[in-house]
Automatic annotation (TrEMBL):
SMART domains: DEXDc (SM00487), HA2 (SM00847), HELICc (SM00490). Keywords: ATP-binding, Helicase, Hydrolase, mRNA processing, mRNA splicing, Nucleotide-binding, Spliceosome. It catalyses: ATP + H2O = ADP + phosphate + H(+). Residues 15-24 have a biased composition (Polar residues). Belongs to the DEAD box helicase family. DEAH subfamily. Its EC number is 3.6.4.13. CDD domains: DEXHc_DHX33 (cd17978), SF2_C_RHA (cd18791). GO terms for molecular function: ATP binding; hydrolase activity; RNA helicase activity. It holds the Pfam family DEAD. This is RNA helicase. Residues 1-28 are annotated as: Disordered.
Length: 720
């Protein structure tokens, strides 16, 4: 964990001196030149004309051609923001919304949050003067709850539509309806002159409150047909990209361990190949942090002159001040190694990449329609994704892509990724659509219809959680309240219930801590499994990650609660806050406080980035609670009260011990194991409540507490 900090310092030192005004003038000039040389720049006029002429268009263009950063600026300059209207651009990923907004603000020579801003869940960097607003697709959906015709927007751009996230799909359906509603209003508003409707496609006439909504679908995949058909034959415009040849290299054999293979490939390129940055695709924060650590371990074994590698991680929950690091120019004599999730596939284009390492896997949501449960699994990518990944190596010159699988495997991959809506739990979608006034979910105009059984499962779950009435309407107040929280329905329910059980303070901490990836530093799941077996003999293994893990486990002991992982998380959170307040009493310098907290995390083997993110989420949800007049009561030492509340909230996630030590989920009979990282791994209580399901070679439940049986018996027949 100490590595990233010293890395940052290295970057800072190397980039020192670039702050003089001369340099900043140069930078402005350089940025302008960069903008002008983007492929999209040559079709600016044409694009603006097409948007004027059509209410809906589809823009297809290769990654890096300038769609996301340039088009909103073109439209702004063409007058689409007159009357104070806003151009909204949705992104499937938080990081993309943030980094692109920062870049565009710089390009416009504006302060972030003024003309150009972003809004993502729990982080709003916009103001009343914001005209170009980048946001996540989920956030725009939430805005529709408050403003059903999205009246502030003149243009909405659905970016990265090819990703087909569940939010994008719901938005597409919703925006079709919003467009209709706005058009109707618009016609009513129109001044009639001699029975001729004055045609005015530029939304600048001040009496027009409901100008038609311009909708732009942007995609990096060449297949625009599906979108065009869905939008009644909407026109597709193609932006020519620029692509240099990329050498594709495969392995001869399947790799048993892609993390190890990635590491070997990084060093092989570094030692044998010409200069150029490396982009490696990994599946998540934990894996990225592990590879980061291992790269630095191995660097120590190289001669001094070969240690010129700089690693930069990029993934969704990376604190925003660190996200821009990937865009900093690589210092001369250094090779940048970007460790990214599939965020770098199409959402963010990182300059300087010449080598791509593609292990061929991605972490995605998977929904089991039989059990009605959702989990995250690591699965093979699609052919389209493999092509996107290799394309990242040929943006600025010829490049190389190392696919860590044999060519025969490539041909077995599915052509393109199945839309998320067909492989995730729909509870959230159903709740939101109901709150938006769409009662007939099965009849909703989805681009790809989710299965009827998945919809029914979600309706049933929402009914059991009390969000729906007997006739399937949103219940008042529980359902309405639940829809207002930007959380999974089950977490919203937990917060609402904990008000009644007088342990909202504890539950709020739990929800915040569960909203981030891995609070505890844990080198890879696989390692954890093996460590449990070899724990006692750990000293025989001198491998640094194992030693690290053993030290970590003993550091975590002081936080662990006999009641389970949830109260353990509460203890960690409170210890961190207490420590921070102590430091704050001595100094009021935020940087110093930050630094101390990082050190505290390091000493306790707590993931600093995750903890900070959790602190952030905590204070944001608190704002929601205050707005809803919910008071933060604590159960104090009465942990039974908390366990009762946890059981009442998550009764759908209760599991009973079986004679062989595995567990059976009471709601659906699924067989699961307690994850080795749980504090209850060895205790194995009779009945547990879990809040996460993960699937590796086994199905594990993670974040577990002892269930409170008397409470549970209210939801299940005793004899089942
Ligand atoms: P597209 O949306 O078509 O994939 P973008 O508009 O995202 O393309 O990117 C256009 C160019 O801007 C790319 O060359 C990319 O490297 C550059 N770019 C985007 N964001 C940043 C940033 N934060 N810093 C530096 N360059 C950036
Ligand atoms: Mg883009």
């Amino acid at each position: 964990p100490s590595i990233s900090r010293s890395q940052e310092q290295k970057l800072d030192n190397l980039n020192e001196g670039s702050k003089t005004s001369n340099k900043s003038l140069n930078r402005k000039h350089w940025i302008l030149q960069q903008r002008r040389s983007l492929p999209i720049a040559s079709v600016e006029r044409r694009l603006v004309d097409e948007v004027r002429k059509n209410d809906t268009i589809i823009i297809v263009g290769e990654t890096g051609s300038g769609k996301t950063t340039q088009l909103p600026q073109y439209l702004f300059n063409a007058g689409f923001c007159r009357d104070g209207k806003v151009i909204g651009i949705t992104q499937p990923r938080r990081v993309a919304a943030v980094t692109v907004a920062k870049r565009v603000a710089e390009e416009c020579d504006a302060q972030l949050g003024q003309k150009v801003g972003y809004a993502i869940r729990f982080d709003d960097a916009t103001s009343t003067s914001t005209r170009i607003k980048y946001m996540t697709d989920g956030l725009l959906l939430r805005e529709a709850l408050l403003d059903p015709i999205l009246s502030r927007y003149s243009v909405i751009i659905i970016d990265e539509a090819h990703e087909r996230t569940v939010h994008t799909d719901v938005l597409l359906g919703l925006l079709k309806k919003v467009q209709d509603a706005r058009l109707k209003q618009h016609k009513l508003d129109k001044p009639y002159i001699n029975n001729v409707v004055k045609v005015d496609n530029e939304c600048h006439s001040s009496n027009m409150k409901f100008a038609p909504l311009k909708l732009i679908i942007m995609s990096a995949s060449l297949d625009a047909k599906g979108f065009s058909e869905y939008f009644c034959g909407a026109k597709a415009v193609y932006v020519q990209g620029r692509q240099y040849p990329v050498d594709i290299l495969y392995t001869y054999q399947p790799e048993p361990d892609y993390v190890d293979a990635t590491l070997i490939t990084i060093f092989q390129i570094h030692l044998d190949d010409s200069p150029g940055d490396i982009l490696a695709f990994l599946t998540g924060q934990e894996e990225i942090e592990l590879v980061d650590m291992l790269v630095h371990e191995r660097l120590k074994q190289l001669p001094e002159r070969s240690r010129n590698i700089l690693t930069v991680p990029i993934y969704s929950s990376l604190p925003s001040e660190q996200q821009m690091n990937v865009f900093r120019p690589t210092p001369s004599n250094f090779r940048k190694v970007i460790l990214a999730t599939n965020i770098a596939e199409t959402s963010v284009t990182i300059p300087g990449v010449k080598y791509v390492i593609d292990p061929g896997v991605v972490k995605s949501r998977y929904y089991n329609p039989v059990t009605g449960m959702e989990s995250l699994i690591i699965m093979p990518i699609s052919k389209a994704q493999a092509l996107q990944r290799s394309g990242r190596a040929g943006r600025e010159g010829p490049g190389k892509c190392f696919r860590l699988y044999p060519e025969s495997e490539f041909w077995k991959l599915i052509d393109s990724t199945v839309p998320e809506i067909k492989r995730c739990s729909l509870s959230n979608v159903v709740l939101q659509l109901k709150a938006l006034g769409f009662n007939d979910i099965i009849g909703f105009d989805f681009m790809d219809k989710p299965s009827r059984s998945a919809i029914k499962q979600s309706l049933q779950e929402l009914y059991l959680l009390g969000a729906l009435t007997d006739d399937c309407k949103l219940s008042d107040p529980v359902g309405i309240q639940m829809a207002r929280f930007p959380l999974d329905p089950i977490y919203s329910k937990a917060l609402i219930l904990s008000g009644e059980f007088r342990c909202l303070e504890e539950m709020l901490i739990v929800v915040a801590m569960l909203s981030v990836e891995s609070i505890f530093y844990s080198p890879r799941e696989k390692l954890e499994e093996s460590v449990v077996i070899i724990y006692e003999m750990a000293l025989l293994y001198s491998s640094p990650p194992v030693v690290f893990y053993c030290k970590a486990r003993s550091a975590w002991k002081k936080f662990s609660s006999p009641d389970g992982d949830h109260l353990t998380l509460v203890t960690v959170f409170r210890a961190a806050v207490e420590y921070r307040e102590k430091i704050r009493a001595a100094t009021n310098k935020e940087k110093a406080i930050d630094k101390s907290l990082s050190r505290w995390c390091r000493d306790n083997f707590i993931n600093n980035r995750s903890l900070k993110h959790a602190l952030d989420v905590h204070s944001q949800i608190k704002v929601y609670l205050e707005q809803m007049d919910m008071s933060l009561s604590s159960c104090g030492d009465d942990v039974l009260q908390f366990r009762r509340c946890l059981t009442a909230s998550f009764f759908l996630n209760a599991a009973e011990k079986q004679p062989d030590g595995s567990y059976r989920v009471k709601a659906n009979g699924q067989n699961v194991q307690i994850h080795p990282s749980s504090v209850l791994f060895r205790t194995k209580p009779e009945c547990i409540i879990f809040t996460e399901l993960i699937q590796t070679n086994q199905i594990y439940v993670r974040n577990i507490s002892r269930a409170w049986m008397p409470e549970l018996s209210q939801y299940y027949d005793v004899e089942r």
